[in-house]
Amino acid sequence: MAVNDLDDGPVPSGQTARQAESVAxxxxxxxxxxxAVTALPTLGTLLAVALWLAGHGPGAAEIGVFAFLYLAxxxxxxxxxxxxxxxxxxxxxxxxxxLLIALGSMAAHGPVIWWAAVHRRHHATxxxxxxxxxxxxxxxxxxxxxxxxYHSHMGWLFEGRSTRPPGWQQHVQDLYKxxxxxxxxxxxxxxxxAGLAAPALLCGILARSWxxxxxxxxxxxxxxxxxxxxxxxxxxxxxxVIGSRYFDTGEDDRSKNSxxxxxxxxxxxxxxxxxxxxxxxxxxxxxxxxxxxxxxVGLLQALGLAWEARRPSREAIARKRCAAK
Length: 325
Fold this sequence. Notes:
Blueprint: H1 17-53, H2 60-86, E1 91-92, H3 94-105, H4 112-124, H5 142-153, H6 160-163, H7 173-176, H8 179-186, H9 188-207, H10 210-237, H11 259-264, H12 271-276, H13 292-302, E2 306-307, H14 314-322
């Protein structure tokens, strides 16, 4: 979630006292939300493991809701929040747009317009001091590198300069004018709650017990959220430290490709490819680069539910590949 740490400092130039107090109030709330979205899934996962060791492990229903909601929310983030809303890599039917954004919201990574603002800033400032979550700015040596990895993975959620610096809304003025995106943005907390309540209700009904409801909440809600979050956050951390580079993406940018993360994030592990062609609906640019997100966009096109999916030409790929270091 968005966080802001401007509540303890002087009022920025050009900002009124009322505006500063509004920022401070948002900062206090944002810190609590950041703690919730990082700590609660961790605690829920530990409780789920403890119950498993005590003989109350996940059954078919719990495994089913975990798998389904992992797929649904990860696709919502990667295809909906990321490729469609943030980069406008393809156009889609309004019902499809709403469904993808709702599913992405269930992942509890923040409201869609805020999420897009952070990601657009990341592309504009990748691995520079203005990058919201670069792992490469803490210095050399083992400890600074570990600090950088922690910051890029989840520590940045607690730093206002990363999550909501002055003027962050300027990156997403177009999205505030999009009625579908704005409506789902305002419904964010409803969809987060729905992503927790639905598996609890379903598993509780199937098991006809409160224990079944608890296991559904844990495995379909908190454990699933833990798994999705750490896979997605690893793109910010690991995919700017280890992996391979096929394209020159600028003097500062250190984005890299990861086959393993591409599998679990449905194509976004081809991170260097994505930084080379951010508006492409497809991140897998070679025949062997598995890109489930791109395949899903292709399926939507085949069904007439999406269109104008962007893909870099062979010439554009060759030009950037030839310039690679």
